[in-house]
């Protein structure tokens, strides 16, 4: 790890001020940990809860992983078909547009009836949340392949849908697929808490936050878990950007910026 | 057979929202092997359409296009094409762009890298092999497109205003390079341009087209021995004749 530069250090200042304000307002103005627990109390809770926390993080990541894997592997083939073949788009798009606006959480009863109270039911809700952003950005990528690139492929011997998709459309669409995946990850993560609130298991960040801490009125624990949820999402996003977007899409630089 | 490519009564109409646009009418043309043919004509007269049909990317409404005795029925790597607009694959480096056709053909990595490097040198871009297209200037991009079209060793090279977007100096350099390549590789080249100067400098024969619907209104052998001087008397004379043809026929 390198030390933060001066500019990065400067952007830490407002953060520190906010945390100080939080501490002071909670401790000296509101003075009711049931409404706003103090920052220091929250940090202390994270420490107290560390063992439970690891288990819950792993469970939530499991749910998230199941949902994202399902969403990605279902959305990508459909996106290729919809983006590349006009007729598939015409046939499928109305169905997609009807299902898409249904909030993922509305699927919870069906998920429980269909799948039962287990990890896969939680995964299913996350799948619903992540599927549409991935699908829509990806098929847009495939649909927008410039005609001249397809024709360039043609005159160089790249003829037929399979070859064209593999050598022209897929590489062209990859950045859109990545963008969709990133957005999908964000939506999917929001679904994690909700999916777990309904007792699909007996661990997980959302489960603990809602089923245990909230019922016990342990607001410092609740806020501790909220912070962890936010930080984990941030880490996942950064990791994705680091390993996928920055490495794979050097060529995009000239187009985006 | 003494011609490489033959266009016989080729006509092209586009159907666009009720109206029918007649882009090309009654095109008859024979191109000899190893000939450098330039096509000039006003904007919108169907030059791109003509090349696209020879490439097999579009089809004549009537008439036929015959290449080496066979009717053209679709694109094939034996006809290379350099497009009017930029057409490099932005996700591929320069070398990988040049290799594309060879890769599709299933050639081994090492072999195709060697060929790609050869053509990279051909167009004078050594040292840029690992750059991405966004890092290149317009003229450099067109050179890469030319190298890519050459790499699969097509018998015919179709070039659609390849130097349209580069400045005059670079343009001259690229013209020299192209003549050099043409001399070395003995290809048949069909070269579309707006510029009479360019046509007179490059071509064995210049085809002049009229405004829409595009027709061939003249074929002119240049016949000046190479290397040519851009400002020679003969060149000036031919230029003047061609400009007159263009001027008188495309103004209604
Ligand atoms: N796909 C198409 N659909 C409808 N009309 C078309 C299509 N392609 C070309 N045209 C029409 O055909 C005519 C010839 O177009 P073309 O692109 O061949 O001209 P051009 O000679 O290459 O012009 P420029 O020198 O500007 O490149 C134009 O009037 C154009 O509007
Ligand atoms: Mg054109």
Quick overview:
Chain A has helices at residues 6-30, 39-48, 50-84, 86-99, 108-115, 119-143, 147-155, 161-197, 205-213, 219-248, 253-256. Chain A is mainly α. Chain B starts with a strand and ends with a helix.
CATH class of chain A: Mainly Alpha
Specify Rg of chain B, calculated over alpha carbons. 18 Å
Coarse shape of chain A: globular
Calculate the terminal CA-CA distance of chain B, rounded to whole Å: 40 Å
Helical stretch count of chain A?
11
Average pLDDT score of chain B: 90
The total of helices of chain B stands at 7
Portion in strands of chain B: 25-35%
From the 3D structure, determine the CATH topology of chain B: Rossmann fold
Strand order of the largest sheet of chain B: 6-7-8-3-9-10
Radius of gyration of chain A: 22 Å
Which sequence of SSEs, written as H and E, runs from N to C of chain A?
HHHHHHHHHHH
Instruction: Please bin the fraction of helical residues of chain B.
Output: 25-40%
pLDDT under 50 segments of chain B (min length 5)?
none
Model regions low in confidence, pLDDT < 50 over at least 5 residues of chain A: none
Number of β-strand runs of chain B: 10
Number of domains of chain B: 1
Tally the beta strands of chain A: 0
The major pleated sheet of chain A works out as:
none
Which features would summarize this protein structure in a list?
heterodimer, A: 257 residues, mainly alpha, MetI-like fold, 11 helices, 0% strand, globular, B: 252 residues, alpha/beta, Rossmann fold, six-stranded mixed β-sheet, four-stranded antiparallel β-sheet, 7 helices, 25% strand, binds adenosine-5'-triphosphate, binds magnesium ion
